[in-house]
Amino acid sequence: MDEVEVVVAHSERATLRVGDVFLKVDADQARVDVEVRAMALAPVPTPEILWRRPPVLAIAALRGTTLGRLGGPATGSTAAWAAAGAALRKLHDAPLPPWPGRAGRSVAALTAELDDECGSLVRDGILPADLVTRNRQVAEAALRPWTPAFTHGDLQIAHLFVDGDEVTGIIDWSEAGQGDAFYDLATFTLGHEDHLDDLLAGYGADVDLDVIHAWWSLRSLLAVRWLVEHGFDAFAPGCEVDVLRSRM
């Protein structure tokens, strides 16, 4: 019998792997509903859904490997990164899904959330004030009107698979919906700034680099405390705190 591998587990959800099957356990069925609907609408390769019996969603493993992980080395050829960019452009150009996503919070709501989080990071002694202040300044460029796009909403580098130079699939769509396309681009290249040009070569659209840089800071500021509280190491080399330090 295949061993059971715990891919990720925290208080909100868990993902297990048994052979070529991933079992996603999530008590929030509305979040799973979004994932299933988004995969059905997305014009890019997604995993096959094998079955769903709440609170479990079973999906098939994808062919290939990821282009890396946050805090680890990036892999893949320049062409593979360009292929990832082309897949993101296809997604962002697709008809909008009929619901807002994580990347679609209003500027006012996002600003309020960011200000509250920055205050907590300093007040609780998680990060030094100068680091938070500088990155809050950088993040300002992301707080602007944006044209809605079909966004993945949590497009970490580990969520896109390639086989050679071909994108074989994108996983974890529970945060998908209408949002800022630059958020996806920034999330995918977080901690791997040296591959941004390769990604954009395939994306093929005008991109405001200041906004990408701003989303690196903004996403990291919002993530650090949650990661610490849920047992993840945001201070590991190459991860969120290093991303914030690079803005100094």
From TrEMBL:
Coiled-coil stretches noted in the UniProt entry, renumbered to this chain: none
Domain Aminoglycoside phosphotransferase per the UniProt entry, residue ranges: 39-205
Pfam families found in the cross-reference section: APH
InterPro entries per UniProt: AGP_Transferase, Aminoglycoside_PTrfase, Kinase-like_dom_sf
Entry's transmembrane regions: none
Identification of the protein by name: Phosphotransferase
Organism listed in the record: Micromonospora cathayae
